Structures are given as C-alpha cells and as structure tokens.
Amino acid sequence: SNSLRSFVFNWNFISYIIVAICLTTGTLILVWLSEIITERGIGNGSSILILVSNLARCPGVLINKDSFDSLDFTYQSPNYIFYITCTLILMLSLSSLAQE
C-alpha cells in the first residue's frame, strides 16, 4: 500500500517511462489482436473489439444505478426502461450493420 501510494503521488521520470511503456504495450497487444481477428475473417477486428468492450460494460450500467442519478432515472421509471431499450436496439442494429 505504501509503495502504491508513493507511485501514485510522487511522480518522477521513471514513473512516466513506466506508464508510457505500459500504455504502448497495451495498445500494441490490442492492435495485434485486432489484426488476428481481421485475418481470420471473423470481421473487422477493431470494430469487434469496440463492440465487445461496450457490451461488457452494459451489465454494469444496468446494475449500477449511480450512473443514472444525474439523469434522474429510477428502475421503475418509463424513462429508464425507454433508455435501456433504445440502447440495446442501437447496439444490436450497429453490430448487425458492422457484420454486413
């Protein structure tokens, strides 16, 4: 805990280098994975990775009501149900368009 605190609050040149290396490595891995998906003919790799990321976030948004507090939604509210329905329809239609 102490070493994490010192890393987060006491930035130096080495900290910037470590963060830059981690971001670059993560980006290279995602580009490589995207290229493999595209080469295998599954679809456009970057679009599929973005879609999977959005779909993975969807259950957390549905469960976590705190993200809707600024919009003044409640679980039984027609606005909440309309918002969730429109979001799901939009995601499904965009994913079907992306696969064509």
Give a written overview of the molecule:
With 100 residues, this protein is mainly alpha-helical. It has helices spanning 2-9, 13-39, 45-63, 78-99. The longest helix has 27 residues, at 13-39.
Brief descriptors of the model:
single chain, 100 residues, mainly alpha, 4 helices
Q: What's the β-strand tally?
A: 0
**What structural category arises from helix and sheet content?**
mainly alpha
- Encode the helix/strand succession as letters: HHHH
Q: What fraction, in percent, of the residue positions are helical?
A: over 70%
Flag low-confidence runs: none
Count up the helices: 4
Q: Write down the overall geometry.
A: flat
Q: Termini separation (Å)?
A: 49 Å
What's the story with the biggest beta sheet? none
Compute the CA-based radius of gyration. 20 Å
